[in-house]
Amino acid sequence: MARLQRSGRASLYGMLLTAAAVLLCWPATALSVTWMAATVYLVAALAASAGLAMTSR
User: Fold this and answer.
1) For the chain, percent helix, then strand, then coil, each to nearest 5?
2) Which sign does the torsion angle of CA 28, 31, 43, 49 carry?
3) Over residues 14-21, mean pLDDT
4) 13 vs 56: CA distance, rounded Å
5) What angle do helix axes 2-28 and 34-56 make, rounded to 10 degrees?
């Protein structure tokens, strides 16, 4: 029973991580420093791919 509860949590955390990555891109559009915006987009892409992997698992 405990194993089933933990497996459901992983997909929830994955969805939250993906949503956080999407929301992280929003303030990145306001940055005028190119390297800083690129860094934020890179972090968002890594978070989205980790969230997708956790959700698909």
Assistant:
1) 90, 0, 10
2) positive
3) 92
4) 11
5) 160
Contacts of 9 (CB under 8 A, 6+ apart): none
Q: Is the four-CA dihedral 34, 31, 52, 54 of positive or negative sign?
A: positive
Report the alpha-carbon angle 28-35-53, nearest 5.
60
Tokens of 42: 């890179």
- Per-residue pLDDT tens over the stretch 18-57: 999 999 999 888 988 999 999 999 999 999 999 999 888 7
User: Does residue 14 sit in helix, strand or coil?
Assistant: helix
Tokens of 56: 């698909």
Tally the C-alpha atoms within 13 A of residue 17's C-alpha that lie toward its C-beta. Answer: 19
